[in-house]
Amino acid sequence: MPKKIGKRDITGQKGINVIEEVVLEMDFLWYPSGSVEAGIDGYIEIRDGETEEVSNLIIQVQSKATTKPKSLGEDDSKLEYRCDQRDLEYWLQGNAPVILVIVKVETREAYWTSIKDYFQDPEKRRSRKVIFNKVKDRFDASARDALINLAIPRNSGIYLAPRPKKEKLYSNLLKVSGFGRRLYIGYASTEDQSKAHSKLLKIGQSLGQEWLLVDNLILSFHDLRQHPWSTICDLGTVEEHDVEEWAQSHISEHQRQFVWLLNKALREKVKNELLFDQKKKCYYFKPTHDLTTRKYNYHSLLKKASRDVFLSYDKKTSKEIAYYRHSAFEGQFLKIESDWFLEIKPTYFFTRDGFTRDKYDWDHLSGIKRIEKNAAVFGQLIMWAEYLITPVQGNLFFSPYPFLEFDKLEEFEVDVGIDDSTWVRNEESDVADLIEDSVNELPLFKLSHEN
Predict the structure, then answer these.
(1) Which of 231, 271, 323, 405 has a 20 to 30 Å separation from 288 between CA atoms?
(2) Furthest CA-CA distance within the chain
(3) Are 341 and 370 in contact (CB under 8 A)?
(4) Are 125 and 43 in contact (CB under 8 A)?
(5) What are the strands, taking DSSP E only, across 300-399?
(6) What is the per-residue pLDDT across 304-362, written as a single tens digit (0 to 9) for each?
(7) Over the stretch 204-251, which tens digit does the pLDDT of each residue have?
(8) DSSP summary character for residue 431
(9) Dihedral (C-alpha) 258, 259, 261, 262: value to the nearest 10 degrees?
(10) How does residue 104 score in pLDDT terms, banded at 50, 70 and 90?
(11) DSSP-derived secondary structure letter, 143
(12) Is the confidence at residue 419, as pLDDT, over 60?
């Protein structure tokens, strides 16, 4: 009779191969136990990937591989395995830590638990059943630190540093890529400052508010020599300057004047779709003409997205409108070294009729801030950055605003990253599930992770 190796043996070896691949990815060493074994398929030796030093800290591994996930009672969140009584007694009596690894060979997914820790509970030990959480108990490179903690004796004082990784962080600083190339300065043609201001306001209603009046001296991104600005300026006094003289000036007065002009330019840039509230110092989406919900479509970091930027809330006791919520942001111009940025702080603005600020706006804002998580705030930040960078939606004939342009959110690469899967694993199972969902929704946690 010819020798045969059954499917079960092949499946078992496939499971071992998956485990070995994961162990090597952790920079640890894997030693298979060979053909003669009584319940332990191999050994993991902890190795420091940075110093390349081996530790003689050993974890015993028992692999259970399967091609039939239904036999594990699997659902979306968990899977189960019932241990053999003799195997369990063997694993528990030794002096080395033992982990049980379940491998789904078709998908190369693996889940693990520390046998001695899991079966400290007498009830669990009587049932012999292990329930694996598919978020918390995944056996991949993210389990590295947990295995180190399992292998190192509590009183040893040994420390192995986590592997260095780079991570990309996004700030709330939107870079200013351009503003008016020239700055014009001239004296008003009237010495009566109130009259000069009134005339400038009338001109600005149609041509823009990008001007500043200081002691009858007018500063503007607009060419004051051109009509109708020339009707308020003494043409003989008008000077043309490179805008960089103010943008890069170290004179505090010039800096304040330039920030004032940038703020005026921002209001003009967004005036077709946004309003500005003087008291709360925030920009917010205008209501629709019939006060129905308004959606804004934009590109998030990974996909197309949509957000309700104006919508109503009903009263608790009736179908009457209680108030309206507007997506909003607070904006502040900052100079960092030689570059200018708009600092964006996402928030909300609340009105009782689409225009008049609701008297309970602070209560509404506090309530929504308690509910919203980091992912929601980050999503709003991305939306506002996209809005300020791109032209007005639905207007094919829109000409770009000439006095203020933005590039993108400032990004930073750091050499120390957070292994999200590791800290999620240490949470209780129900909390870990919730956190994992939030992490998956938040693109920030998925970008530029480099081992």
Answers:
(1) 405
(2) 115
(3) no
(4) no
(5) 304-314, 321-336, 339-351
(6) 888 999 999 998 888 899 999 999 999 999 999 999 999 999 999 999 999 999 999 99
(7) 888 899 999 998 999 999 999 999 999 999 999 999 999 999 999 999
(8) H
(9) 120
(10) very high
(11) G
(12) no
Q: Which residue has the tokens 């209501």?
A: 287
Pairing of strands 54-66, 98-104: parallel
pLDDT at 392 over 70: no
Q: CA 76, CA 133: separation in Å to the nearest integer?
A: 10
Mean pLDDT of the chain: 85
Instruction: Specify the DSSP class assigned to residue 39.
Output: S
- Paired strand residues for 138: 111
In angstroms, rounded to a whole number, what is the distance separating the alpha carbons of residues 232 and 217? 11
Q: Identify the bridge partners of residue 446 per DSSP, sorted by sequence position.
A: none
Q: How far are the Cα atoms of 286, 295, 310, 323 from residue 290, in angstroms, in the given order?
A: 12, 14, 12, 14
For residue 228, say if its preceding peptide bond is cis, omega within 30 degrees of 0: yes
| Alpha helices in 157-243, H assignment, sequence order | 193-207
- Nearest residue to 158 (alpha-carbon basis) of 4, 296, 48: 48
pLDDT value for 336 = 92
CATH number of 7-151: 3.40.1350
| For residues 370-385, average pLDDT | 86
Q: What are phi and psi of 198, to 5 degrees?
A: -60, -45
